[in-house]
DNA sequence: TGTTAGTAGTCGTCTGGACGAGTTGAGGAG
DNA sequence: CTCCTCAACTCGTCCAGACGACTACTAACA
């Protein structure tokens, strides 16, 4: 066994930096310096214990630091590996161009074609219910007013990337294909425009935070990966809110792109 | 000592859910259910050890889970507290309206006035150097070409919220006030327009990830708080890139707002 | 009155050990 | 040759204890 040549670091006992942080530093430098590539296996806990002559908890603490930063992922029974960054996807500003709806494409499908990925949707659920206060405010309805709630999960090439929940005022949705799991070509925006609610503009409010456990589970998120929360409000030509969409997006799968005029 | 009434949970030894996760679940429910409010102190490690009859490491592990989720913050020597969400700041779409520059206001200053916060800038550094490849690509310069690099830190009411680094082609910056720590009224965009490079549009690419240690230090980020990385490119009427700004923003201090036409 | 030293309570770090559970690969049974 | 068993290796969880450092409060002191 030649051992791991990447383990060149030594603990500085005189340093006031905690030992587990020094170990994490060494490994982090190995990753960022390219001596360890995405997918590579880090030295096992046992190897690090021996190399640095420390207790196992100390090594584990260092490993957890790296996992918390999203640099590494542990796999039970196999080892700890350098995280590989999947290719990012791009959200164009013309995402909601009417042209796409005219072609019968929903935004997510049109977008995924650009990057050559296979888009799919599952966990579709349509029901009536009450919106959260922050949703009700944007939709300009009372919080105790019933609205139609459409939730679904989007995946690219089988990998879940986005959880979306749309809220539509009941009078615009009831009795239309918006209540169907599959709302038809062009998605629900096409159905709204068929009712004469011509879409005029959208606002998007973007937040970032760590996922809840439920979100991490549904999006198969590795530890240390934050999510985008994007709340989009769609307005028609009369300035009425016709839909609010609350979306949780895997932070490592998305890059949001916007174009702003200097006006 | 009446003890903590919030500690109603008991460990289920039959459950296959790890003990430290069960403890974290109890505390999480207490926080999310409102029995513990932002700023409240969680039971001490000693209290939890006694209540659940477990070892200290088990309790600490539970606490770290909550801190990793951003729900709680430990303060050395004081206790662990429920995180209080500071008021969010809003990035309007008219952030770069020429009107603001005409009034001699830089974007950050104009914006902070809206929320009634006192804006300040420090750690200003101006130098010449080479851009990162992803910056060079946006700026349409070679990666080995010298550009002017302006970095600074923005704070609101004394709290650091944003680290920004601007890259400007050398021929547009050298010999102008852009090289000064204080570039004058209206900021560097006003200086660029004075040279006849009228700004036409901006693109913004938004990413989210966990902060590096350096970023966490400079932004005083609590554990479990992700950051936005926003790369803005400014174009003039000729379509030339006149500036690329790479910004790291505290994820819990910002809400990004965009307006999109349906065109 | 104002300051200082002490003390109790709290979290941070580290040791050394124990057992459980998932993964892998080699060697043996068929 | 195929399949299965099993041992070795790996990470996950938990215990019991030790010392250090920071905070807040109190009591003694100047």
What this model shows, in words?
- The structure is a homodimer of 263-residue chains.
- Chain A is an alpha+beta fold and 263 residues long.
- Helix content of chain A is 28%, strand content 31%.
- Chain A folds into 2 domains: 19-82, Orthogonal Bundle (Arc Repressor Mutant, subunit A), CATH 1.10.10.10; 89-256, 3-Layer(aba) Sandwich (Chorismate lyase).
- In chain A, strand 8 (227-236) and strand 9 (241-250) form a beta hairpin.
- The model of chain A has no long low-confidence stretch (mean pLDDT 83).
- The A-B interface holds A 57, 68-70, 88, 93-98, 199-210, 212, 223-228, 251-252, 254-263 and B 57, 68-70, 88, 93-98, 199-210, 212, 223-228, 251-252, 255-263.
- Strand 7 of chain A pairs antiparallel with strand 10 (254-261) of chain B, so a sheet runs across the interface.
- The structure holds a DNA duplex (30 and 30 nucleotides).
């Amino acid at each position: 066994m030649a051992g791991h040549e990447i383990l060149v670091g030594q603990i500085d006992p005189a340093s006031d930096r905690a030992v587990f942080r020094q170990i994490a530093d060494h490994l982090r430098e190995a990753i960022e310096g390219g001596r360890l590539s995405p997918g590579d296996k880090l030295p096992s806990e046992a190897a690090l214990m021996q190399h640095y002559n420390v207790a196992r908890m100390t090594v584990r603490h260092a490993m957890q630091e790296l996992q918390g930063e999203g640099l590494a992922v542990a796999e039970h029974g196999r080892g700890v590996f350098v995280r590989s960054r999947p290719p990012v996807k791009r959200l164009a500003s013309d995402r909601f161009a009417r042209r796409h709806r005219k072609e019968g494409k929903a935004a997510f499908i049109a977008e995924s074609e650009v990057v050559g990925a296979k888009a799919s949707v599952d966990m579709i659920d349509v029901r009536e219910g009450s919106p959260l206060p922050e949703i009700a405010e944007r939709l300009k309805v009372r919080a105790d007013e019933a609205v139609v709630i459409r939730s679904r999960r989007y995946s690219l090439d089988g990998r879940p990337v986005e959880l979306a929940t749309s809220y539509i005022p009941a009078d615009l949705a009831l009795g239309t294909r918006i209540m169907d799991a599959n709302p038809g070509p062009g998605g629900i925006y096409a159905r709204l425009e068929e009712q004469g609610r011509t879409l005029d503009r959208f606002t998007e409010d973007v937040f970032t935070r760590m996922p809840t456990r439920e979100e991490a589970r549904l999006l198969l998120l590795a530890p240390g990966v934050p999510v985008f929360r994007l709340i989009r409000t769609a307005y028609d030509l009369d300035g009425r809110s016709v839909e609010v969409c609350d979306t949780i997006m895997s932070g490592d799968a998305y890059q949001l792109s916007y174009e702003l005029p200097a006006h």
